[in-house]
């Protein structure tokens, strides 16, 4: 422990050095005096006395040196001195320092921003107990690799086998209407299985979670409130436990309030109620989310193997329900950030390139400046400075520059993030991990580390060059040799060529992404989104408890809305395209019973008769639903082209019958009366899937979206439409108001953002590369001014001089573009994996991008080249 | 001066501690002088090396320093042994004696025990 004490004291010795120095001098002086006194007493004369005393001491300065080395930490001391010197140097050259800091701020800032994204997504711990032991379970189908949400049947079967997991929990998401004090609002509603929050390790802030008997139907309904809803709607009243609230016209008792932690994957669940599962005959539809906790010391693959063998056994024992199905076990974090990974990788690569280009530029600047300082380094080397010392000092200077750039970069990053997150459309439920993005200590640490690395990276080249200075020639000529300048110029040129190559790669990526977005925007979505207003209505089941009531409500609403003067047509659909979908199995009449894994499947939609007309979805064959068709008419459905292609490839589907459910379902048979064109419901870049449209009067549905085709601006009609609905039922909350064009645009938002970001990075890179090129060519011009003056005096035309300069620039551009094209082609495999649907070898994009880059680069060369031609030969020749 | 032997590394600290134990609190010059005397003038001490050694001992907590006035009315920095220093001295002294005893067995002629 003594050594620790000593080291700490030595660290402290770095401070108050002046005072300690004075004390030491005093002590040594006193020592000398005492020795001199003794010498005098023994008979020496004063001069001899002093001389002997000094010799015996061993030299004042040497003693002081050894003492100082012991007092502080010499290495650290030296480093601090280097930093102070570097600071002084930068202070003397504010222009250079500003340029360097700004460039580095852009490079480091971009990396900080992307890292904070990575931090929010991957590194921040989830707010649950032992969150890394939580997994999500997905139901899979062996034949076609389909993976989706488990059904209650799956959940009950998995839960009954205790061996695979420590605990399992399920949640079903829905929505309900909260009425009572204040405006009725639509609230996201989670139905949870017993022990759900206990499994996550989240305890309620107030009250308790659900008791076992509350999971049975019929008991006094209970509800848990979320922290946000409690604060927003109940004023954070601590006495809220025990109060009653009305959800969708039913009365619930509040038993607890959950704490304010992030929920994954969506953060806006307002209330929780117990999940009702019929354990004897569980539902087979897939609408649950299942989370499990691994046993202690169990790995994910062990759990996966365990649950798969259970699934295999279930498939054997209960073939009708379980054959062909298996389970996928995915760590919780991966489940909801998985899709973001490719985009993050592309972004990381892009900002990495930008930083490299920034480094190259600053290195180039440093190299240029080192010419001015060769005299200084030469003298220092002559005086005995070690090469390492000079390198260390120049590196300290670079790191200082880089750290300053890093600090500024953090501000840039924070500002850019706020901008980006603010631009997310409100209707897009923000994935929770994006809410966690921000600058925390990990991000700061990363920035500091990256700054130091950056400083070393761009500083090493100039440092090596400065310390390797050839003494003689430098001291003689004062550093004006054209040869030294030429070598450095070539080096800078090489750096610029590399910058151009990196810029080209970035531009190619940006070009491909933008082309993709443009292509998507021009893809025919299958409907006409212009001038369509959408609005979501969610009827409470307690109030509308018979089909007749539901039908009556919607009929009246449609009639009223159609009567509005500016409305051309109105319709209803239960799942608005691009906003959601449900899947179901069906049976085709007259076909052999399919194997369990090949049961026909489609997305189901419940629509009103005018829905297709409102959204402009064409009918390819057959007829539309008629206005008057209802439960008294024959049950009918309309299918889409994709369904026909999949299940009726060689026959006319009109007139055939299908019914929902498996082979033993007792639902009525529906006649196919028409075929609608495909609508790209799942995103403009996804393939259309088979779909079945039911008529809402035959198949009433509580939650529908109203679509209204208006004469002019759709959102202008919002309040009028709302009023019409409220005349029918004043307590009905309405949500999700938007124009259809907006809904479409929102679905493209992630892709658009990626394209824009990539374009911004590419533009920044281009700017920096152009500036770098400009710098190098300028330097060439100044170096060769003498030569140009001579040439012009000997009869060269200005254009000849121009061509001479441009030739150098062109050479650099060609090297850069060549390297860049090569790298882009080499990287295209990575691009292919990340940007599906895009042809990474798109000659048009490559050619356009290369041409654009060459044009900008030529401009950057042209400006200094013009300067060369302006020089008056007389003056340049005289300047010696 | 040429007969004198240079101080072995690491033993200077031990000598300083022993000197302080024998004499009591003393200033740097006095310690250096005393060490030279104790060695019978057979050691040449570069007086300057005393000071870094004293600093090390002070940093490790074996001695403590204080400015005071000397006999000739000079302001000098006096060093004294701490409790920890005394313990260290005892321990080091014992280790040295053991080391020299073992080495002596090797270096002095002895009867071979069969």
Topology:
The complex is a heterodimer of chains A (880) and B (114).
Chain A (H helix, E strand, L loop, with lengths): L1 H11 L4 H25 L4 H12 L2 H12 L2 H19 L1 H30 L10 E8 L5 E2 L3 H9 L6 E13 L5 E8 L3 H5 L5 E2 L14 E4 L1 H8 L9 E4 L2 E8 L11 E6 L13 E6 L6 H18 L1 H4 L2 E7 H6 L3 H42 L4 H36 L9 H4 L5 H27 L3 H7 L4 H40 L10 E7 L8 H17 L3 E7 L8 E7 L12 E7 L3 H5 L3 E4 L13 E5 H7 L9 E4 L9 E7 L14 E5 L7 E8 L7 H11 L5 E6 H8 L1 H35 L1 H9 L4 H37 L8 H28 L2 H6 L2
Parallel strand pairs in A: 4-9, 6-8, 15-20, 17-19
Antiparallel strand pairs in A: 1-2, 1-10, 1-11, 3-4, 3-7, 3-10, 5-8, 6-9, 7-8, 12-21, 12-22, 13-21, 14-15, 14-18, 16-19, 17-20, 18-19
Helix pairs in contact in A: 2-3, 5-14, 6-13, 6-14, 6-16, 13-16, 13-17, 13-18, 13-24, 14-16, 18-24, 18-26, 18-27, 19-22, 24-25, 24-27, 26-27
Chain B lengths: L4 E2 L4 H13 L2 E2 H11 L4 E2 L2 H14 L2 E7 L5 E7 L1 H25 L7
Parallel strand pairs in B: 1-3
Antiparallel strand pairs in B: 2-5, 4-5
Description:
The complex is a heterodimer of chains A (880) and B (114). Chain A is globular. In chain A, helix 5 (74-92) crosses helix 14 and helix 18 (482-521) runs antiparallel to helix 27. A six-stranded mixed β-barrel of chain A has the order 3-4-9-6-8-7. Chain A has 880 residues and is of the alpha+beta class. Chain A is 54% helix and 15% strand. The model of chain A has no long low-confidence stretch (mean pLDDT 83). In chain A, strand 3 (167-179) and strand 4 (185-192) form a beta hairpin. Chain A contains 28 helices and 22 strands. Chain B is an alpha+beta fold and 114 residues long. Helix content of chain B is 55%, strand content 18%. Chain B contains four helices and five strands, in the order βαβαβαββα. Chain B has helices at residues 11-23, 28-38, 47-60, 83-107; strands at 5-6, 26-27, 43-44, 63-69, 75-81. In chain B, the strands form two sheets. In chain B, strands 2-5-4 form a three-stranded antiparallel sheet. In chain B, strands 1-3 form a two-stranded parallel sheet.
């Amino acid at each position: 422990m003594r050594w620790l004490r000593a080291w700490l004291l030595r660290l402290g010795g770095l401070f108050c050095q002046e005072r300690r120095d004075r004390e030491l001098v005093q002590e040594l002086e006193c020592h000398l005096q005492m020795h001199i006194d003794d010498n005098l007493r023994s008979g020496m004369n004063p001069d001899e006395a002093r001389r002997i005393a000094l010799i015996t001491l061993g030299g004042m300065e040497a003693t002081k040196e050894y003492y100082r080395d012991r007092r502080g930490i010499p290495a650290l001391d030296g480093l601090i001195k280097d930093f102070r010197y570097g600071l002084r140097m930068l202070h003397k050259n504010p222009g250079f320092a500003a340029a360097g800091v700004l460039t580095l701020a852009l490079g480091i800032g971009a990396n900080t921003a992307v890292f904070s994204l990575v931090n929010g997504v991957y590194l921040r711990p989830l707010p649950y107990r032992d969150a890394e032991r939580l997994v999500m379970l997905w139901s899979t189908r062996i034949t076609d690799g389909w993976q989706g949400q488990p059904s209650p049947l799956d959940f009950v079967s998995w839960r009954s086998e205790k061996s695979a997991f420590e605990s399992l929990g399920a949640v079903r998401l829905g929505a309900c209407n909260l009425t009572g004090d204040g405006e009725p609002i639509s609230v996201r509603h989670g139905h949870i299985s017993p022990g759900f929050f206990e499994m996550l390790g989240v305890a309620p802030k107030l009250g308790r979670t659900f008791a076992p008997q509350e999971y049975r139907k019929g008991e006094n309904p209970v509800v848990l409130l979320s922290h946000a809803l409690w604060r927003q709607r109940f004023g954070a009243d601590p006495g809220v436990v025990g109060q009653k609230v009305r959800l969708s016209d039913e009365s619930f008792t509040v038993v607890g309030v959950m704490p304010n932690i992030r929920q994954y994957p969506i953060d806006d669940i307002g209330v929780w109620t117990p999940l009702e599962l019929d354990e004897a005959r569980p539902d087979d539809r897939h609408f649950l989310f299942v989370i499990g906790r691994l046993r202690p010391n169990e790995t994910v693959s062990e759990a996966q193997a365990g649950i798969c063998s259970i699934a295999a056994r279930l498939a054997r024992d209960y073939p009708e329900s379980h054959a062909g199905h298996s389970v996928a076990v995915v760590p919780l974090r991966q489940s909801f950030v998985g899709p973001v990974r490719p985009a993050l990788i592309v972004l990381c690569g892009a900002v990495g390139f930008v930083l490299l280009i920034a480094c190259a530029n600053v290195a180039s600047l440093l190299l240029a400046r080192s010419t001015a300082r060769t005299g200084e380094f030469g003298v220092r080397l002559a005086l005995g400075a070690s090469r390492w010392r000079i390198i260390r000092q120049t590196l300290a200077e670079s790191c200082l520059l880089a750290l300053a750039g890093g600090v500024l970069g953090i501000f840039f990053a924070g500002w850019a993030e706020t901008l980006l997150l603010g631009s997310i459309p409100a209707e897009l439920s923000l994935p929770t991990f994006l809410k966690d993005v921000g600058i925390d200590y990990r991000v700061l640490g990363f920035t500091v580390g990256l700054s130091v690395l950056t400083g070393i990276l761009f500083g090493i080249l100039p440092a090596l060059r400065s310390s390797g200075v050839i003494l003689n020639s430098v001291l003689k000529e004062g550093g004006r040799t054209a040869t030294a300048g030429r070598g450095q110029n070539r080096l800078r040129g090489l750096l610029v060529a590399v910058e151009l190559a990196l810029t080209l790669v970035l531009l190619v990526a940006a070009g491909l992404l933008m082309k993709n977005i443009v292509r998507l925007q021009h893809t025919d979505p299958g409907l006409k989104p212009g001038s369509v207003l959408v609005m979501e209505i969610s009827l409470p089941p307690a109030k509308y408890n018979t089909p007749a009531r539901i039908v009556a409500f919607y009929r009246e609403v449609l009639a009223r809305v159609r009567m509005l003067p500016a409305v051309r047509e109105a319709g209803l659909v239960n799942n608005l395209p691009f906003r959601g979908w449900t899947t179901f199995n069906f049976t085709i009449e007259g076909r052999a019973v399919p194997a369990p894994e090949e049961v026909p499947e489609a997305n189901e939609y419940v629509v009103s008769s005018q829905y297709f007309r409102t959204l402009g979805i064409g009918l390819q064959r057959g007829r539309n639903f008629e206005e008057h068709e209802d439960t008294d008419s024959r049950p009918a459905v309309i299918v889409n082209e994709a369904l026909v292609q999949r299940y009726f490839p060689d026959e006319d589907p009109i007139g055939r019958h299908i019914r929902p459910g498996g082979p033993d379902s007792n639902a009525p048979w529906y006649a196919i009366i028409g075929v609608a064109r495909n609508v790209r419901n799942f995103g403009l870049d996804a393939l259309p899937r088979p779909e079945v449209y039911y008529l809402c009067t035959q198949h009433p549905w509580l939650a529908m979206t109203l679509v209204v085709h208006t004469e002019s601006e759709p959102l202008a009609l919002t309040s009028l439409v709302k009023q019409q609905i409220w005349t029918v039922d004043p307590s009905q909350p309405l949500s999700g108001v938007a124009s259809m064009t907006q809904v479409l645009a929102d679905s493209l938002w992630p892709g658009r953002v990626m394209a824009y970001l990539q374009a911004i990075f590419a533009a920044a890179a281009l700017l920096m590369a152009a500036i770098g090129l400009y710098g190098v060519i300028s330097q060439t011009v100044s170096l060769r001014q003498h030569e140009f003056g001579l040439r012009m005096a000997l009869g060269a035309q200005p254009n000849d001089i121009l061509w001479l300069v441009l030739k150098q620039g062109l050479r650099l551009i060609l090297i850069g573009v060549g390297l860049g094209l090569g790298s882009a082609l080499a990287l295209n495999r990575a691009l292919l994996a990340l940007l599906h649907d895009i042809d990474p070898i798109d000659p048009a994009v490559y050619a356009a991008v290369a041409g654009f880059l060459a044009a900008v680069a030529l401009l950057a060369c042209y400006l200094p080249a013009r300067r060369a031609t302006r020089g008056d030969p007389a003056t340049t020749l005289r300047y010696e | 001066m040429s007969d004198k032997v240079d101080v072995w590394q690491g033993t200077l600290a031990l000598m300083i501690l022993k000197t302080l134990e024998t004499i009591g609190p003393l200033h740097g010059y006095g310690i250096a002088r005393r060490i030279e005397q104790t060695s019978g003038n057979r050691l040449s001490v570069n007086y300057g090396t005393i000071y870094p050694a004293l600093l090390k001992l002070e940093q490790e907590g074996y001695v403590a320093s204080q400015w005071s006035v000397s006999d000739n009315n000079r302001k000098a920095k006096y060093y004294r042994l701490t409790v920890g220093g005394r313990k260290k001295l005892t321990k080091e002294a014992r280790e040295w004696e053991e080391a020299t005893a073992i080495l002596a067995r090797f270096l002095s002629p002895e009867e071979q025990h069969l």
